[in-house]
Fold:
Amino acid sequence: MASPIAATAPYWVPALSMLMIYRRVRRNFGVQPWRPVRNGIRLGFLALVAAMLCVLGAFQPQLAPGLGIGAALGAPLGLLALKHTHVAWRDGQRTYTPNPWIGGALTALLVGRIAWRYTHEGVAAAQAPSALTLGMATVLIGYSLVYAIGLMVQMRRLAAQRDAADPPAP
Structure:
């Protein structure tokens, strides 16, 4: 007999996924306040997920090519997104304005793939890992890791520029 959690997973896993996707989409548009603690937590979580995907690739070699290609595509996309991100001071707080097209396109690609699996392969098949789905997820993870690290560097540089421009009063 399946546990109540496992029996209800087809209902709450998609709902939780949609909540996470909503939060991700919301972060792609408009001026965003810089929250270093939240970024650090996100970076730690992404690193943990990336490590788990590496372990998965080691134990299931048929998934490794998708994971490797995903990481190889995600990192340059993160660098491209950083190039098009604007950082600035607003009302005494560091902010950034991400380019919505790259992050939005990656999110739409992943959501489309998940929706395809649920509608064409069924709920049971959608819970089993696929090289293509995990590859797309790895693109998003690689992109997010590079973007989070690069944004941290840009924000430190922005703070250093302000400190250099406004020396402390004697």
